[in-house]
Amino acid sequence: xxxxxxxxxxxxxxxxxxxxxxxxxxxxxxxxxxxxxxxxxxxxxxxxxxxxxxxxxxxxxxxxxxxxxxxxxxxxxxxxxxxxxxxxxxxxxxxxxxxxxxxxxxxxxxxxxxxxxxxxxxxxxxxxxxxxxxxxxxxxxxxxxxxxxxxxxxxxxxxxxxxxxxxxxxxxxxxxxxxxxxxxxxxxxxxxxxxxxxxxxxxxxxxxxxxxxxxxxxxxxxxxxxxxxxxxxxxxxxxxxxxxxxxxxxxxxxxxxxxxxxxxxxxxxxxxxxxxxxxxxxxxxxxxxxxxxxxxxxxxxxxxxxxx
Amino acid sequence: xxxxxxxxxxxxxxxxxxxxxxxxxxxxxxxxxxxxxxxxxxxxxxxxxxxxxxxxxxxxxxxxxxxxxxxxxxxxxxxxxxxxxxxxxxxxxxxxxxxxxxxxxxxxxxxxxxxxxxxxxxxxxxxxxxxxxxxxxxxxxxxxxxxxxxxxxxxxxxxxxxxxxxxxxxxxxxxxxxxxxxxxxxxxxxxxxxxxxxxxxxxxxxxxxxxxxxxxxxxxxxxxxxxxxxxxxxxxxxxxxxxxxxxxxxxxxxxxxxxxxxxxxxxxxxxxxxxxxxxxxxxxxxxxxxxxxxxxxxxxxxxxxxxxxxxxxxxxxxxxxxxxxxxxxxxxxxxxxxxxxxxxxxxxxxxxxxxxxxxxxxxx
Amino acid sequence: xxxxxxxxxxxxxxxxxxxxxxxxxxxxxxxxxxxxxxxxxxxxxxxxxxxxxxxxxxxxxxxxxxxxxxxxxxxxxxxxxxxxxxxxxxxxxxxxxxxxxxxxxxxxxxxxxxxxxxxxxxxxxxxxxxxxxxxxxxxxxxxxxxxxxxxxxxxxxxxxxxxxxxxxxxxxxxxxxxxxxxxxxxxxxxxxxxxxxxxxxxxxxxxxxxxxxxxxxxxxxxxxxxxxxxxxxxxxxxxxxxxxxxxxxxxxxxxxxxxxxxxxxxxxxxxxxxxxxxxxxxxxxxxxxxxxxxxxxxxxxxxxxxxxxxxxxxxxxxxxxxxxxxxxxxxxxxxxxxxxxxxxxxxxxxxxxxxxxx
Lengths: 308, 364, 358
Description:
The structure holds three protein chains of three kinds. Chain B is built from 13 helices and two strands. Chain B has a single domain (41-321), classed as Orthogonal Bundle (ABC transporter involved in vitamin B12 uptake, BtuC). Chain B is globular and about 75 Å long. Chain B has helices at 13-37, 42-55, 57-82, 90-107, 116-142, 146-166, 202-219, 221-231, 233-238, 243-270, 281-291, 296-320, 324-346; strands spanning 2-7, 347-352. Chain C has two domains: 27-131 and 256-284, Response regulator (Rossmann fold, 3-Layer(aba) Sandwich), CATH 3.40.50; 133-253 and 318-353, 3-Layer(aba) Sandwich (Rossmann fold), CATH 3.40.50.2300. In chain C, helix 6 links the parallel strand 6 and strand 7. Chains in contact: A-B, A-C, B-C. The interface between A and B is large, with 57 and 56 residues. Chain C: InterPro entries: ABC-Purine-Binding (IPR052910), PnrA-like (IPR003760). Chain C: Residues 1-24 form the signal peptide.
């Protein structure tokens, strides 16, 4: 294996992991505020189709990315209206949102099937991008890769270093006492849900503008569910989401390489490896009960209605 | 304008009854709007969606076939969620139940007696329960979050079934295509009224399981324990209940019922073990459990409603060329309306018009 | 239960006002059941474009209807039943897994004609049909053998069913007809359409040194990867030259249209007969090759010649001597493969660097 091949493999892993990371980091903030939105898959797929449509119509993939974000936010507002304003059951509402999102994306996307997509341009810095081994990895990736890393850092800083972040976490832990302290619980939660929608929409746009620049119905193919699982995997800690997303991506790509090398293991077992690996690693890291309890939002998925 | 929810002192019996009706009216209005916008005759479309599937005997049978697995899984999930355990891997338990139950006709095709089917159903239940026991064990033993483990195991189960149906369990006379032998008659869950349609006894099993579990939740100590531990683990522990045992109970029951649904589907509607045996029943049943308000009897009604939306979508596609995507969107809206209207049972909704300033805070 | 009852009650009220919906059924009606969405960019879309072709060709004489995204199993049985009951005269069921449901429904509806794609069972009112895609795969294999510099191709495969295995073998036969040492790497993605996974597999294969990509999955993602990495690829089901203007050499196009028109006409004039199996090939136009592009003239000439020879019956892609993967003889010198063996193919020919699950 030469240096170039190693770099290429790492780049492939990064591309596969980025949409998972984007969607998961958004959902992490949502869940930290005490809301469980199981509609990530639906918001992602809407982001994918609107991202593609935006880029296709305007010719600018940047506008496409914005369209993806916007679409994700709009769909998340629908969830917010039901789950927050009307205090409906969050699990059922999120699942219904996924059904709606998949149907809606199919309707929107009918005219875009089979059309050539537009790719978000990769970063290209003189000299730096051409460095051996790390050049492309550090300085030559698609913009959303950098966004995903920066976003994770920003969420980490926001949740643990800012007052607003502390407030958000306290709402997730106990919305009643937060309310008693005069905090507008629903407002925070709406904003968190919208942030989650934006991230899921962007993750979808990554699929249709970076990963595979085209629109195919259901192109998220279950990645929204993986993102949801990664939030749990991370025990609601942002840096662990990076770990989870890249672990999942690495095992996925690794098993493909193993297959291409002709290693005689059933392909079904190979395809199951990412899921098994995630379970095993989570078992290993979640044995410290105390740490897990501290980080789990205690009022997750419980509806909140301000009493008067 | 904004709206405010005001908690009712107690559940409104009136709205418990009206809310589904209100949801239906809203759905019809939304449907009228959507279909008109798409240039389809709205009344005919709604007729195809809601009436056609209920207007012929064979379609009612199909409704029962579609609803049976949804109900059976949702009944188990209702108890599981009530106890505050989050099994979202029913799809995987359904698949494993389908596999373990099928072991009998595939490995012992000569074993054709009266006991064949009961043994299969039992094995299906055990298989699903065993699959459910994995997240339970990991949760109680290693403190691993059950949402992740149960979900991830779904994919593992799907791939395992794929491997079996294309390899070891493949029908030797099947031209090397995937899928097992077709089960002999003694290994099939028979049809109820074969002259009218193809519904099999799975729906009866589903309704029976709903009634039994409802009885347990309502009248037995175990049901009380589920509710206490689900409401407050601390209180439960003071009451001498073990939350570890409850985790296992919840997962074994919900996994077992999902497994039973799996083998009932394989031995009933399908008739062989295929490389896929579920179009997502395990996930759809989560919606059913909550639509049914986590009540086993509610799951029966909710299961039929969800099944109707699938059949109705198909009927509308067929008779009016309404696309499958529109049907899916409409299904999502219907669920939203049902969920939203249920809010009225517990709350009064107050609309506040004009400049309302900051939402009322700090009054609690 | 209450909800259902209420729904029922309201429904009946609605039915009363609408007077029920009645639809006149005079025209001949052809119906299609699809496994995927009609816009999947692959298998299902090809069938649906063929359905539209039927409408263009036969115009006012017929009407068509379809159900898309129909899962195999009980859902497909219901869908086919619905078609048989709603006035369809002929029903095309376009996925292997619809085979048993098609047979079951056909038994209950002897007056309706059924055609099932890619299976092997028939009945008095059921035929089956398929296309000899392996003929196209042989041609693209031959092109690959000519233009590859590394002598290795990557094959992105979906599921190990005979059809896919047959395609892999045909491709390798074609490649080895010009380069006896040609090698093939296979990656199974366990999905028909997951663009992301297909792209991952394509990248992995390129990283391992293949300079030819071909696929038995639906999306154009591998073509995009080929274009980006500057290697060669072949379109699947559709012309994918928009995704790979320089990468695409040619494409195997699924062109079911003429077949459907022929069969529907037969059904209309009463010459349609059940119990038959049709396995058409390049000569019948059920599959066609997209224009040969982006290759040297001599390669193009060779591809065209091979295509002509296959059409005329002069060349059968599986002509001995061919050994199985383990080195044992499959076909002796000059012997050609029987259709039955091909349709149930569960072994690789010599030279495939992969293990089939068994």
